[in-house]
Here is the input.
Amino acid sequence: MHIVYGGAFNPPTKAHREVYRYLCGNLEVKRFTFLPVSTTYKKHDLESNEHRYNMLKLMADDLDKAEVSDIEMQDEQYLGTYEALKRLQKEGERTAFVLGADHLRHLKRWIEAEKLVSEFYLIVLNRGGENLKEIIEQDDFLRKHEASFLLFPDFHIDVSASAFRNSRDKNIVVEKVYEYIVENGLYKG
Here is the structure.
């Protein structure tokens, strides 16, 4: 399986590495792609594409199945997850996209949501003690595509990129990423 893990990675944290380790330990992973979203995606306070890409490369450099893709950063506008997965998928390869439970309720509003859940698997990691099955059962769109979801209700990590941005606690990121942040004067608030 090819797993694609998208996000802002603003900055990439030890939690992002734990997602990689957890999924590689629980699924047969052939390839794992970190997919940082571009600044064309309207998200508040994103560091530049270049800095987030460079930090992600540093964070993932010793993860043997990991690669970092800049395809969304090359786009002039945000095209959505479905389009990114279509471009990343190799012929005959099962591809799955990772998302947190907090995104599940809004999935039907994503660009090309119907195609996304019809053509790809979605790996749902629990966040905040959500009842993943209940969320799916209560939503017509999600229930219709229930077979597309690989649920991991026992996954739990409390570390977030926003926690680093708020505290600059160097223990939240790997050492090479912290050094890069200091060297480039990032996240000073």
In short: The radius of gyration is 16 Å. Residues 14-26 form the longest helix (13 residues).
